[in-house]
Task: inverse folding
């Protein structure tokens, strides 16, 4: 399963398509406090993909900590606009890895998700 934290409804089908090709379910949440996260079994989750536009820069560290505590061992990835370099750097410093621009993610999403799935196999 892939978890997508995003408020961008136009991007959801892109991630859904890539997940479906890899036989992965996609859970879409709009905030980190979503009760659906608590119900997940960490061993079933491959990665959490966080849209940096969905959370404030001040909450990056707390978001990474919360996700790591609820889903230990799961890949925490983030993506955002290439013009917001400070936010991308802050995400990396907060523990998200990989941190990608939206363009990088759009261009390589199927390959990136394949790598995640293989790394958790």
Result:
């Amino acid at each position: 399963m892939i978890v997508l934290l995003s408020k961008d409804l136009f991007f959801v089908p892109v991630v859904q398509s890539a997940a479906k090709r890899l036989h992965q379910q996609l859970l879409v949440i709009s905030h980190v406090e979503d009760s659906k996260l608590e119900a997940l079994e960490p061993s079933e989750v491959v990665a959490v993909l966080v849209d940096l536009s969905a959370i404030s820069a001040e909450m990056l560290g707390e978001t990474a900590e919360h996700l790591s505590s609820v889903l230990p061992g799961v890949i925490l990835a983030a993506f955002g606009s290439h013009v917001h370099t400070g936010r991308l750097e802050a995400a990396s410093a907060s523990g998200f890895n990989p941190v990608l621009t939206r363009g990088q993610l759009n261009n390589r999403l199927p390959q990136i998700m394949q790598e995640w799935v293989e790394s958790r196999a």
Remarks:
- Strands lie at 2-5, 26-29, 47-51, 75-80, 99-101.
- The chain has five helices and five strands.
- The radius of gyration is 13 Å.
